[in-house]
């Protein structure tokens, strides 16, 4: 796999022929004895991930040669050089979701590209990418993992609510599609995370909160949220708070609940 555009953006880019999980690989390398050689914005990528993981413990289905598995290391520091406080880390996977949405949109100009909270990227309501964040030991760095359905044909998509980039790209699965998608993602992620840190991790002053609300298809939707403990929440998604949590107005009693993590279904798509 040749990724010249992406290599120019990453601080370090490692392309693996195959691996179990790019997140596991990068977490291990960036926190091991060789950690000093893995600077902020190091990237591991593969076209063949055999043990990918999604949110809430799910398996990410990744047919060899038809998807892209990406992991990016962030060692976030504020302008004066101090490490980002752990309380603000919840915005980083949301920023990655914004970045992937912005990267994909120019590649599918005739389609609607939106972000389903917290960080599933959809083309015309069908999932093309999902993201998963993992803290490094010590909590001063994070690996942001992204899976992108690149060239999976319609007959081989893992679910009825999935799609692939090539199915919606006007010129189909051309050889440079992976590099353009990855370079776009890394460029947007670098710009957005730098803005966030430059403004002291303030989502509103940095413009991150506004961009998230503009791109988020979940807002205003009737939703079913499967919470990590197994409980289910039904209601209307009415906002995103200062911590990046989804505000849901419950159908049963009108009470507003802040959701930090959960599997969201847009009921209008069922």
Quick structural summary:
By secondary structure, this protein is α+β, with helices and mostly antiparallel strands. It is built from 6 helices and 12 strands. It folds into 2 domains: 211 residues, BirA Bifunctional Protein, domain 2 (2-Layer Sandwich), CATH 3.30.930; 52 residues, SH3 type barrels (Roll).
Set down the secondary structure blueprint.
Blueprint: H1 4-7, E1 12-16, H2 22-30, E2 42-46, E3 67-74, H3 91-104, E4 113-116, E5 120-123, E6 126-135, E7 142-149, H4 165-168, H5 177-198, H6 208-215, E8 222-226, E9 232-240, E10 246-250, E11 256-259, E12 263-266
Parallel strand pairs: 1-2
Antiparallel strand pairs: 2-3, 3-7, 4-5, 5-6, 6-7, 8-9, 8-12, 9-10, 10-11
Question: What does this entry look like structurally?
Answer:
With about 270 residues, the protein is an alpha+beta fold. The chain has helices spanning about 5, 20-30, 90-105, 165-170, 175-200, 210-215; strands at about 10-15, 40-45, 65-75, 115, 120-125, 125-135, 140-150, 220-225, 230-240, 245-250, 255-260, 265. Helix content is about 25%, strand content about 25%. It has a seven-stranded mixed beta sheet with strand order 1-2-3-7-6-5-4, sandwiched between helices. It has a five-stranded antiparallel beta sheet with strand order 11-10-9-8-12, with no helix packed on it. Helix 3 packs across helix 5 and helix 3 (about 90-105) packs across helix 6 (about 210-215). The longest helix is centred in the last third of the chain and has 22 residues, at about 175-200. The protein is globular and about 55 Å long. The chain starts with a helix and ends with a strand.
């Amino acid at each position: 796999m040749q990724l010249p555009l992406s290599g120019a953006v990453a601080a370090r880019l490692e392309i693996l022929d195959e691996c179990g999980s790019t997140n596991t690989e990068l977490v291990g390398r960036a926190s091991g004895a060789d950690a000093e050689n893995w600077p902020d914005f190091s990237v591991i990528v593969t076209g063949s991930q055999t043990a990918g993981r999604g949110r809430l413990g799910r398996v990410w289905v990744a047919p060899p040669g038809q998807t892209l598995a990406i992991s990016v290391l962030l060692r976030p520091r504020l302008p004066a050089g101090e490490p980002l406080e752990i309380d603000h880390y919840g915005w980083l996977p949301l920023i990655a979701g914004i970045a992937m949405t912005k990267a994909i949109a120019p590649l599918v100009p005739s389609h609607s590209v939106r972000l389903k909270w917290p960080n599933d990227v959809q083309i015309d309501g069908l999932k093309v990418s999902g993201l998963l964040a993992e803290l490094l030991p010590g909590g001063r760095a994070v690996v942001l993992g992204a899976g992108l359905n690149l060239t999976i044909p319609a007959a081989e998509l893992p679910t009825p609510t999935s799609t692939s980039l090539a199915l919606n790209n006007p010129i189909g699965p051309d050889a440079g599609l992976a590099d353009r998608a990855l370079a776009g993602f890394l460029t947007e992620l670098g710009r957005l995370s730098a803005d966030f840190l430059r403004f002291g991790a303030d989502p509103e002053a940095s413009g991150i909160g506004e961009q998230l609300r503009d791109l988020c298809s979940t807002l205003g939707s009737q939703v079913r949220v499967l919470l990590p403990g197994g409980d289910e929440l039904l209601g209307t998604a009415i906002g995103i708070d200062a911590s990046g949590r989804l505000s849901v107005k419950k159908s049963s009693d009108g009470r507003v609940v802040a959701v930090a993590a959960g599997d969201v279904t847009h009921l209008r798509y069922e």
